Amino acid sequence: MNQENENIGDFTSRFRELQDKFRSLEPGIENTDTKKALSVMNGMVQELWRHVDKLSHPSEQGELKLQDVSEMYRNAPRMNGAAINKPLDEGTKAPDFTLPDADGKKVSLSDFRGSPVLLAFYPLDWSPGCSQQLDLYQHEFSEFEKRGVNVLGISVDSIYSHGAWAFVRKIEFPLLSDFNPKGATAIKYNVYREPDGFSERALYLVDGNGIIRYSYVSPYLHHIPDIYTIFQKIDNALKTVKAN
Fold it and tell me: How far apart are CA 228 and CA 234, in angstroms?
């Protein structure tokens, strides 16, 4: 119980920090659809917080638990739909980008020169397939570390959604926000689904020289790439780079 209370305390502190950051940034955002979308997302996170906040009080029957929040994806509407984009070709230069992580820190692909990077584009935080996919990557993170591969999750969600989602799902690798301009990085990588307003479920393995060594778009939104196939592709790509 003490550990749970400590986790809740950490979440409370983190939430308030992100909320203060949002309030400081909001006045400087032009009154456009982007601001409206950001305000809606902030409202959603606030609503989620009202439920999670109950965890700081003695348990009562019917009260929502943190575990309940982490399991919400199981009852969420399933994502369907066939892929509408093809990935960039292997062997081509990976477009550079700079996106904020959940802490608002700017992260660029070029920051990882000299080390391979797996870019995991996914549709949305909190959705069923994305929760399962990123949970899997976190569970197998030691396998990525063993291969020296950095993992970056990328979606069109805001940094506030990323912060809350990463805490609930215990995701420790960076989640980058392709929120403003919405989908700009996904567009660079030819994986943005314009009709839906989010990206395909796609993977890019970029070597230390910034070259795409493996590219993949799931044939259907709900399809999660096989983790063992990913490791095999990484191993093959690293052997090829080493041989050259």
Answer: 10
**Extended strands (E) in 75-179:** 98-100, 106-108, 117-121, 150-155, 175-177
- In the structure encoding, which two tokens stand for residue 152, read together? 């970056």
Residue where the block lists tokens 């949305």 = 124
pLDDT tens track for 40-88: 566 666 656 655 555 555 444 455 566 666 666 566 666 788 999 999 9
Q: Which pTM does this prediction carry?
A: 0.73
Amino acid 73 reads Y
Among 99, 96, 85, residue whose Cα is nearest residue 181: 99
How many CB atoms lie under 10 A from the CB of residue 240? Answer: 11
Cα(181)–Cα(114) distance, rounded to whole angstroms?
A: 28
Establish whether 229 is a catalytic residue.
Answer: no
DSSP label at residue 110: G
Q: Per the residue annotation, which of 55, 94, 124, 130 is the catalytic one?
A: 130
